[in-house]
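Per reviewer request, we include the raw input and output of the structure prediction for the construct analysed in the revised manuscript.
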Amino acid sequence: MSLFVWLESTVLARSVGESLMFTASLSAVHLLGFTLVMGSALLVNLRLLDVLLPQRTLTEVTRPASRAIALGLAISLATGVLLFSARAISAAENSTFQLKMLLLLAAVVFHFIIQSRVTRRPQSGVLALRMTAVSGLTLWMGLAVTACWYILFE
């Protein structure tokens, strides 16, 4: 807990917490990064289900979408750390925030390790691709719902 106390006492954290304009700007950029992540993740998983872009190869869709997810994550993490710093103690103790972070970690690991392996293997069958897509969608949508819940009901 002392790390969170220290974090909240930094000049940057106090600047974020004391400025509605700074917090609003960070929140807007955070949302843009999150939108890039979610849109790209949705694209990848719907392609794996053959719902979108069935005429494109998996690599044509997943490679640029994964780069977009990485960019969106970088934006969201940078702004998220700043937003977190202003209320580190209460956020860290919040079970919804903890679930949000757990789902984020699980979705990122799943996408960049498990899903990428399945989509790169030429011998991956339709069932494996579809199961991977459903799992990916479940993780990313769970993250989105949890993030909205945290924003609305924290």
